[in-house]
Design a protein that fits this description.
This protein has 164 residues and is an alpha/beta fold. It is built from four helices and seven strands, in the order αβαβαββαβββ. Helix 4 links the parallel strand 4 and strand 5.
Length: 164
Amino acid sequence: MTILTAFSVLVVLAVVFLVERDRRGTDTEKVGAHDRTMLVHKTPWCGCCGEWAAYADEAGFDVRVVEHADLAPVRRRLGVPDDLASCHTAEVGGYVIEGHVPAPDIERLLSERPDGIGLALPGMVPNSPGMEVPDGPRPTYRTILFDGAGNRSVFAIHGSEGTP
């Protein structure tokens, strides 16, 4: 092997290492600028999805919206179980956010970086972010952390049993 070829191999290995390290991040990594970019997948006719995207933008995320006629293929690709589906799906910091998940839950997810695919708030819960109903019902709701193996756990409780 010539010196030039050996050097080229070392350069390629160093680049691969740095790219992989950047993609994975580190355990001690805090929420960085790259974690603030949020891609929101929604249908063109859903108003509450637009409200939630505006809410996420106001919470400090750099929101990009992509409209789809059918979100099922997006959810399938991202590993969202059918029973956790809502009206929109977002990607941020390597995680999936399904439905009207509150921004503090997303911040906590990005800070703690638990194992899992993401968070879900199934259905369309009244008075969750983007679903505000003045003087409407204020049910208790739970955001769910889920993974690819079918495991689920309550990540946060909102309403009378938990945080406001």
